[in-house]
């Protein structure tokens, strides 16, 4: 089992989870984070830290899509190890649906 970041992170990018990760396995895209599945130690400390409730175990139904996404971008997006400010307007879109088709970007973030 590993943890995955889901659609709820898109256009929010709260980084509370990054701050508590003991193995620095978060990677930053332009408008969301991912967890590198080969680095995650399945400790679960990140899950309750996410204000958007975007982090879930990959054993839940429908998580294959997010695990595949993480696998795809883990080598291309920079590692993020420090908490940063969320995206502007994050609180306004935190519960918006269908964010992947509306907003997802393949571009890398800045990392820290």
Detail the topology: elements first, then pairings:
Blueprint: E1 3-5, H1 16-20, E2 26-28, E3 33-35, E4 55-57, H2 64-73, H3 90-93, H4 99-103
Antiparallel strand pairs: 1-4, 2-3
Overall description:
With 112 residues, the protein is an alpha+beta fold. It has one domain: Alpha-Beta Plaits. It is 21% helix and 11% strand. The protein contains four helices and four strands, in the order βαβββααα. The protein has helices at 16-20, 64-73, 90-93, 99-103, and strands at residues 3-5, 26-28, 33-35, 55-57. Strands 1-4 form a two-stranded antiparallel ribbon. It has a two-stranded antiparallel sheet with strand order 2-3. The radius of gyration is 12 Å and the shape is globular.
């Amino acid at each position: 089992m590993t943890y995955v970041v889901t659609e709820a992170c898109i256009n929010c990018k709260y980084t509370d989870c990054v701050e508590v990760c003991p193995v620095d396995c978060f990677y930053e895209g332009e408008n969301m984070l991912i967890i590198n599945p080969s680095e995650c130690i399945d400790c679960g400390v990140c899950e309750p830290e996410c204000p958007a409730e975007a982090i879930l175990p990959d054993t839940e139904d429908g998580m294959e899509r997010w695990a595949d996404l993480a696998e795809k971008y883990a080598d291309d997006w920079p590692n993020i190890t420090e908490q940063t400010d969320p995206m502007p307007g994050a609180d306004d879109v935190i519960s918006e649906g269908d964010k992947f088709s509306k907003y997802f970007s393949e571009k890398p973030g800045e990392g820290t």
